[in-house]
Structures are given as C-alpha cells and as structure tokens.
Design goal:
Layout (H helix, E strand, L loop, with lengths): L2 E7 L7 H10 L3 E8 L2 E7 L5 H10 L5 E7 L12 E5 L4 E9 L13 H20 L4 H8 L2 H8 L6 E7 L5 E5 L4 E3 L2 E3 L30 H4 L20 E4 L14 E4 L6 H11 L17 E4 L4 H4 L6 H21 L33 H15 L5 H8 L5 H5 L11 H7 L4 H18 L3 H7 L12 E2 L2 E2 L14 E2 L5
Parallel strand pairs: 5-11
Antiparallel strand pairs: 1-4, 1-10, 2-3, 2-4, 5-6, 6-7, 7-8, 9-10, 11-16, 12-13, 14-15
C-alpha cells in the first residue's frame, strides 16, 4: 500500500533538516512540489525522491511564497502523473492552482487501472467537483477560490476519502486551502505535515542547515543566487520542468468570438469504451472543426467533436482496439481519396448569422486527418514508443548527462548549427535517410526553436556572409505579435480533463 505525506511551509519559514532527513527515510520513493515564486506557481512531479540538501535548497530559495511538498513511499506504481500535486492551468500553460491529496481513497481502487487510488479519486470525483465549482462561479477566479473555501463544498469533497483524507489546494497567489478528516496531521513552528505517523522527530529551535549551490535541478537554478550569495555568476532563467499533462486540468480563456466552425457538421461523442491512444486516434481522425487536433475536453468521459456528415457512418463503427482503429483509418483514407476526385465543391452560402462563413461543407477529405506525411504504421509506432517513454521520464539533468555522450552533429559533419535551420523538408528527409518520423519531429522542434528563441533567419543569412546579426525583438515572431497571457481573473470556459495514460 502506498504511503504519502503532504508538507506545507509558509512564507518566511524553512523546513527543519532533521525532520526532512527522517521523513525521507519513511517516504523515500516519489516527490512532487507546488511553489509560489515570483507571481508564478511552479509545479513538478518526479518518480524518484530528491536528496535532503536538494529539497532544502528548493525550499530556502523560494521562501517568499507558500510551498507544498509531496513525498511518498510507493512500493509500486507505473505513471509519474499519479504523483501529486495535480495541476489546473490556463490555455497559455500557466499553472494557477495545484491540488495535493493523501489518505484512504480505497473506494476508487480499480484493479484494471494502472493508476493509484488517489489519481482515480482525482480523475473520477475530485476534478469534476472542482470543475463544477468553477462553472458555478461564472468563470470568475476570485469566486472560484471562494467556492473552494466554502465549508459545504469541502465536506462534500472530504467524503471522497474513506476513514482519512487530507486535501491541500494552493492557488498561484494567496493562501493555501487545507481541509479533510485527518488525525495524523501535525503542526510545527515552520509548517504543517499531513502524515506524521511513525516519525520520532521532536522540534528544536535550530536553523536549517545551509546547503551548497546545486546545478542539477531545473527549478533550483533559479534559487542559486539566494542560496549561494557568494556566486558571482547570474542565475539563468531556466523554466521549470513541465508537469505531465496527464494530471492537468486546462482552463480555456474566456472569449466573446462566436464559434461557427461547426456549422454544417454533426456533433458526436467519443465511444465510451475507447481509451488512451485509440481514443485519441478517433478524436483526431474525425475532428472536422479542428482536423488532426484533440478537442479541449478530450480527457472527459463525455468528450465530443464535430464530425463531417460523410464521416458519421465511419464514426459510428464499433471499435474494440488498435487493430480495428487501423482498419478504420485505412477505410476512411480510401473513401476520402475516392470522394475527393468525384465530389465538386458547392458554392458557399454566407449569412449574417454565421459570421460570413459558408454553411455548406467542402468534401469530407478536407475535414478528416488521415495524414499526408505519417501513415498509420508510423503514427502507431510513434504513439506506442512515446507512451512507454513518457510514463518513465528521466530527470532533466539525467537526460543532459546522457546527451553529453553524443557528439555535436554539426561539428561531426563540418557545418554550422545555424545552417540546419535552412534545410527544406525534402532535404531533411534525405538527411534522415527517409525516416518520416524523425523528419516530422525535427521540423516541429526546429519551428518551435525558431519561434521561441526570437532568431531572425534573415540576420543569419547575413551573418553567414561575415555580417554581425542584429538583435531581434523577441516580442514578435514571424511578424505576429505575441499576445500577453490572459490574467487569471479573465479565464473562462469549463475545465477539460486530459487523458489518462496506461
């Protein structure tokens, strides 16, 4: 049976190193945290525990905000997304709230699931109830927080635990919300511990031990200047490790724009028995409003999409697994290829009520995603590999150590790195010896690198002639201004669940 504890450390306090050392003996396997830092909520989940000095550095370097630490003794588990805190974030990817829960959630035990009881409780009960509070608050963040503080709501949520359960909710700014039925919790001068059972720690009036500057943890890089004032080098702006989207609730922004993308389409729910990659394949295949993309509610059991009328019969097929999905995709491709040669597009009809958008749909081949680059086998191979990779993610520094063993490609072949930014897709395909999966991945990574780095390709062309590249306004990428992230108070729409793995 998994055993977990949640630790809350208020601003200005630091966890006692003696307590932490003893706790890591009792809870040695998994670690997660949520920290209010510089008007952000930094959240990470790790499949392995951290060292005492690493955690002390993390806590001391972020002592201006509330900090929530989750430690566990989990003899067996399969998915890192099961490790709290669970996260709510907006469309821009900004975490605005983190939820930790521990205790007895055996009512949600599922022998057919590869997830912990806590994750099942979060996914099946806690998350949906939080979603309802958000919707009842009419998309107002302050009212949302007030709803979470409501004692009636907290009593309802506490019932998801059997004899004992602790809930800790940390917003991006403001005070944490802590409640539950818990007789194992204990308060100390420096904070609160939800599960102190079996600990021999007796609080003493001593300062936490000082630690050396660490270089191996992404978020800790931000803490270096505070923890090690003697360091003269500035701390790099290292972004935190992104929390697995499998334990995240996405909060879409409020919009006043009328959506007419579904005009002429048929709304259909994803078959309830489809799960994991098969479910995502189905949603991407038939999503006519946004071909090839997952809908915002794709984690929900009631996920729905808008389907082209010609695809309804295909979408109603009984799909039992990967083999059936492969056959379905092949049949859809053959149908759309045949149809696209014979169906003539009708003249578009526009009205004032639909925003000037056509009410007559183009051929279904324009609204299904059977892929012009990666075939079914390519996708299936990639999904199967990634499913295994992402469920066993390595810490960032471990990845960097492994990367260090590989030579720099550009040096090995005698070209400048920047020259790789100018290769066409066909040239990349030839470079990768015809590997379409590698080509598609490289193109996406390269595009993301160009967009986020602010590199001006025209300047790079100039620099190859011996000219000094000019500085770029990083607020503009591809001549499109980067929109500032919407404020938390202005977020809107329902919360959407992201898929379970395993």
């Amino acid at each position: 049976m998994n055993n977990t504890t949640i630790i809350h450390v208020p601003p200005g306090q630091n966890i006692d190193s003696v307590f932490l050392t003893e706790s890591l003996v009792k809870f040695p396997t998994v670690f997660g945290f949520a920290i209010q830092h510089e008007n952000e909520l930094i959240c990470e989940s790790h499949p392995t525990s951290w060292k005492t000095e690493d955690i002390l550095t993390l806590v001391k370097g972020s002592d201006t905000g509330h900090r929530i630490l989750v430690m566990g003794n989990w003899p067996s588990f399969e998915n890192v997304e099961d490790v709290p805190p669970f996260v709510i974030e907006d469309r821009q990817g900004q975490a605005i709230m983190a939820i930790g829960l521990e205790g007895d959630f055996s009512d949600y035990s599922d022998t057919s699931s590869k997830h912990t009881d806590e994750f099942n409780a979060w996914f099946d009960e806690v998350g949906p109830k939080i979603e309802k509070v958000y919707n009842d608050a009419s998309e107002d963040f302050d009212k949302f927080v007030a709803g979470l503080n409501d004692q009636k709501f907290q009593k309802i949520l506490s019932k998801t635990a059997s004899h004992r359960g602790q809930f800790v909710i940390l917003p991006r700014i403001g005070e944490p919300i802590m409640f539950g039925k818990n007789d194992l919790g204990k308060k100390f001068s420096w904070g609160y511990v939800s599960n102190a059972h079996g600990l021999n720690y007796a609080e003493k009036e001593t300062e936490p031990t000082k630690t050396e500057e660490l270089k191996e943890l992404s978020f800790l890089d931000k803490m270096r200047a505070k923890v090690s004032p003697a360091s003269s080098s500035p701390s790099p702006d290292v972004k935190p490790l992104a929390v697995s989207t499998k334990n995240v609730l996405a909060l879409p922004p409020k919009t006043e724009t009328k959506d007419v993308s579904h005009v002429g389409l048929v709304e259909m729910k994803c078959p309830a028995k489809l799960e994991k990659g098969v479910k995502n394949h189905w949603l991407r295949l038939f999503n006519a409003a946004r071909p090839g993309q997952l809908p915002e509610d794709h984690l929900s059991k009631n996920a729905s999409i808008w389907v082209h009328p010609d695809m309804v019969a295909f979408a109603k097929r009984d799909i039992a697994g990967t083999k059936d999905m492969r056959t379905l995709i092949t049949d859809v491709r053959e149908f759309t290829e045949k149809n696209s040669k014979t169906v003539k597009e009708k003249a578009p009809i526009t009205t004032a009520n639909n925003g000037g958008k056509s009410t007559v749909r183009e051929p279904s081949s324009n609204y299904v995603n059977t892929s012009t680059v990666l075939d079914v086998k390519d996708k299936e191979k990639s999904v199967n590999h990634l499913a295994g990779f992402l469920d066993n993610k390595l810490p960032p520094m471990e990845i960097q150590k492994l990367e260090a063993k590989w030579p720099q490609f550009s040096d090995e072949v005698g070209v400048q790195f920047e020259e790789l930014l100018f290769l066409s897709p066909d040239q990349i395909m030839k470079l990768f010896d015809g590997n379409k999966i590698a080509t598609a991945a490289f193109i996406q990574v390269r595009r993301k690198f160009i967009e986020t780095s602010g590199i001006n390709l025209s300047d790079l062309v100039g620099s190859s002639k011996g000219e000094e590249p000019t500085e770029v306004n990083t607020e503009k990428v591809n001549d499109q201004p980067v929109k500032p992230a919407a404020s938390v108070a202005s977020t809107g729409g329902g919360l959407s669940f992201l898929r379970r793995a395993g």
